[in-house]
Design a protein that fits this description.
Elements lengths: L3 E13 L11 E4 L2 E6 L1 H9 L2 H7 L5 E3 L2 H11 L3 H5 L13 H12 L14 H7 L7 E3 L1 H17 L18 H6 L15 E3 L2 E3 L6 E7 L14 E19 H7 L4 H17 L6 H4 L5 E9 L19 H20 L5 E6 L7 H8 L5
Antiparallel strand pairs: 1-9, 1-10, 2-3, 3-7, 4-5, 6-9, 7-9, 8-9, 10-11
């Protein structure tokens, strides 16, 4: 039976704009008839995937998501650097690759084109922009470390031989790989669906447990060299929108699928789950950080584990949490909803652990031990 790990998290953010829409306004959603702040799952996953915590835990097991792999290959071919160095923007002493520009473009297109449809060029583009566009694919592609290594080996081979890659050389996609972020969050290759990977981690959009009002921040910037002789006004006037809120976030991990996605490596899967839970508890989106310094740790974590069908506890907040002590009210609402669910459905998990920073009960270490390993 499938081993599911569910995480219910409450994190309070001060005035901030964590995740904004196309107009610069904090994203919102209507729930229970009132307006709530919202942070998209895409924003959350990117913040976690790009965090120092995640990178330190899985430096060698993280993929690269880009449209520009063909362009990176071109740069490697024309400078004599490895693809890994180009991606990392590492300046190394280049060797003379002895590949002319025309060959480099053609070979890079052949390699990049194996991962997706190349961009359609615009007639009025700048020549250099047109060259770059001709090497990029239309769809964002998530490359695994194994695929990057395979491309690097091919670059070394064709650079040495001076011969175009064959169809056999261009079999660069890998069904099995060790990219933790691909195994967790999945990938889709429209041009090569057999290499798609189903996400083992589902992340809900975070929403506030209470109703919110988005407010305006009117601000000015003063010109330091303005002596007030001709103009005593501000050098710049602007407006930004913000709001504060206590967010509920729900995450569901299919541990069995995660192990399968990682080629059966249970130890790597459990390390990934530990890192994900720790990162989710400590890292939030980076939106407007310099303006608001809205960094926050989760104040409450509830981790559940078992083979039962997963379910969110967001219904606990269908009625907005009111009152001065919203955190305590939200924790109480979660506990009540979980208890009532179990009364009518039976046990919804084989076991659970809590961490409550409001009362100082439980620890993150206890939660991490609980979510990892072949135990309940």
């Amino acid at each position: 039976m499938t081993d599911f790990i569910q995480l219910h998290m409450l994190a309070s953010y001060p005035p901030s704009n964590l995740n904004r829409d196309d107009l610069g306004t904090p994203k919102t959603a209507t729930m229970g008839g009132v307006r709530r702040l919202r942070v998209s799952s895409q924003s959350l996953k990117r913040a976690w995937r790009e965090s120092a915590l995640f990178k330190e835990a899985f430096g060698d097991h993280l993929g690269v998501r880009t449209k520009e792999m063909g362009w990176q290959v071109y740069l490697a071919l024309t400078t004599g650097r490895t693809l890994a160095d180009v991606i990392a923007e590492k300046e190394t002493e280049a060797v003379n690759p002895k590949i002319d520009d025309k060959k480099a473009v053609t070979w890079a297109q052949a390699i990049g084109g194996r991962f997706g449809k190349l961009k359609t060029l615009k007639k009025d583009d700048d020549p250099e922009e047109k060259k770059k566009d001709s090497l990029c694919v239309e769809q964002m592609v998530h490359f695994s470390p194994e695929e990057i290594a395979a491309i690097d080996d091919l670059i070394a081979s064709i650079s040495t031989d001076g011969k175009a890659p064959t169809d056999e050389d261009l079999k660069l996609l890998r069904e099995q790989n060790s990219a933790v972020d691909i195994a967790m969050f999945g990938r889709m290759l429209a041009a090569s669906p057999s290499y798609n990977q189903e996400a083992a981690v589902q992340v809900a959009h975070a929403i506030t447990v209470h109703k919110v009002a988005v407010e305006d921040d009117y601000f000015t910037a003063v010109d330091d060299l303005n002596r007030g002789v001709e103009d005593v006004g501000a050098g710049h006037v602007g407006q930004a929108e913000f709001a504060a809120g206590l967010f509920y976030t729900y995450i569901c991990v299919n541990r069995d699928l995660l192990i399968e996605n990682l080629g059966g490596d249970a130890n790597l899967a459990d390390s990934a789950i530990r890192a994900l839970v720790e990162t989710a508890a400590k890292v939030g989106p980076k939106g407007k950080q310099n303006s608001f310094a809205s960094r926050a740790y989760a104040s409450y974590l509830l981790a559940e584990r078992g083979s039962q069908q997963p379910r969110s506890l967001s219904v606990a907040f269908l009625k907005p949490v009111d009152g001065e002590d919203q955190l305590d009210g939200a924790i109480t609402a979660l506990a009540k909803t979980r208890k009532n669910m179990e009364q009518v459905y039976g046990s919804c998990a084989d076991g659970y652990k809590e961490m409550n920073a409001l009362t100082g009960e439980g620890t993150l270490g206890d939660i991490l031990t609980f979510v990892a390993g072949n135990h309940a």
